[in-house]
Specification:
With 210 residues, the chain is of the alpha/beta class. 50% of the residues lie in helices and 10% in strands.
């Protein structure tokens, strides 16, 4: 049987310029695998196109991506007929969608602390934050990463070539070899699709897992 790491091989074959960050991609996968195995959850944040990526990641984890993820026998018995419409999910929450909270916090407190406040409210020890910033220097994303570390969460950074200030805050910082914002985001999609594919196969697939 093929392992989850075939997705890394596919990434390297299709995008050889990403081979240099393959170890970081694998490390991010392992970190998230352990988080979900321990019953933790994922929080994601970013601005603009990276906000879209933050939500995209959640979409791939919370429902079937490549696989249909049917529930097992015990869960089918627990949820009855409703189980036919449910799929296996990896718990993930984007911090980009709560407009009431975000606008109120920006108006009443500090717009740069919008993500940090949500990490403080939702995050628990053992959870993971994916922080996306193409420059590595977006203040609201950095503050979220700082709060995550203080809550003993793990931080996975997605950034451009230099990593910016995010590099020093992240347990794993995936710095794709691009500097232009659009090109950085293009490579981010490739990377997080690879990670999501690996996670889905580990938790819901039939391939051998390490």
């Amino acid at each position: 049987m093929k392992s989850t790491h075939r997705y890394l091989d596919q990434m390297n074959q299709r995008y050889p310029e990403l081979t240099a960050i393959c170890a970081d991609v694998d490390a991010a996968y392992e970190l998230l695998k352990q988080c979900f195995c321990r019953g933790g959850k994922l929080l994601t944040c970013g601005n603009g196109g990276s906000a879209s990526d933050a939500e995209h990641i959640v979409g791939e984890l919370m429902k079937g991506f490549h696989l249909k993820r049917p529930l097992g026998k015990d869960l089918k018995n627990q949820y009855g007929d409703l189980s036919k419409q449910l799929q296996g999910a990896l718990p993930a929450i984007p911090l980009t969608q709560n407009q009431v909270l975000s606008t109120a916090y920006a108006n009443d407190v500090d717009p740069d602390m919008i993500f940090a406040q949500q990490v403080y409210g939702y995050g628990q020890e053992g959870d993971t934050l994916i922080a996306l910033t193409t420059s590595g220097n977006s203040k609201n994303v950095l503050y979220a990463a700082e709060i995550a570390r203080k809550k003993h969460m793990k931080v996975i950074g997605f950034s451009g070539a230099t990593g910016g200030k995010l590099r020093s805050l992240a347990d794993v910082c995936i710095c794709v070899p691009e500097t232009d914002t659009a090109f950085v985001q293009e490579k981010h999609i490739v990377v997080y699709h690879t990670i999501c594919s690996m996670l889905e196969e580990y938790f819901f697939g039939t391939a051998e897992t390490e």
